[in-house]
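User: Predict the structure for this protein chain, please.
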Amino acid sequence: MAIKVLIKRKIKEGHLRDASKLLIKARYGAMEQNGYISSETLSSLDDPNKILVISMWQKIEDWQGWKNSPVRQANEAEFEKLLNAPTEYETFELGLPFG
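Assistant: Here is the predicted structure, written as structure tokens:
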């Protein structure tokens, strides 16, 4: 079953352009991964430095494979330099889990 991953980041003031470059790099990398479906990037109207990426994957294992890949880990290490707080992740399955 398809899943969606919410990735929340709080970017340091003055670093949105650098963060945008890393987001684009991450998206291109994800697009090459098995199970990737789509993603979108949102910025908060209340705080433009608060960024939410919602990505969709065919299954949780596909996301976990990308999340733990060396390519993504290197990109995330660059991201950490631009953040005010650790990146937050939430995963959701489409639909309700009726037995």
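The chain is about 35% helix and 30% strand.
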